[in-house]
Fold this sequence. Notes:
The chain is an alpha/beta fold. The protein has 7 helices and 10 strands.
Amino acid sequence: MIDVTHLSFSFGNHLVLQDVSFTLGQGEFAFLMGPSGSGKTTLLRILHGALPLTRGKATVAGFELRKITSWNRHLLRRMVSVVFQDFKVLPHRTVFDNVALPLFVRGTAKDIIHKRVAVVLRSLHLEDKVQVRCEELSGGEQQRVAVARAIVVKPKVLLADEPTGNLDRTLALRMMDVFRQFNRFGTTVLLATHNPEMVARVPEARVLNIQEGRVV
């Protein structure tokens, strides 16, 4: 599902990622572990197609990113869900609207949308917020909405950037259980974190340590 070979990325004269190589198969779970500023977010953005590679090769869900066309980038983003560090929820829309949005875009039938959204919101303890506008939620609740929106489409690949950063310990561990459950259904998960307790929650997962732009 994800194959990265000698990937490097520069921002101006600053080399952010250096000669990164790793492979994740279908249904694998891996943590991208490292301190702030180590390149975790940049790598996830490249794998989502939001940033170009400077050197090397990366293939995600069968698409080679250096050669991807605009249409195939659109297809890639239907197969790959991302949980951003800054949530990117629609503040003036309800929780239901935010979570249902990617299903509406895909033309999913309304009854299936309602069923899937209900299941995901229950798993993240948001069922009582379904008609609340996101601007009225706490940061932790908005983060859970972002996760719900990412997993409701049952993606082939899930990229998550510090998805438990605004949650208390109990909710953070519950969210890791949700990621673990979706991984068991076959979704490949690459999750960036600096918290070793989250890593310990998924003992079967691989750990990719990133330091100063290198996977070591």
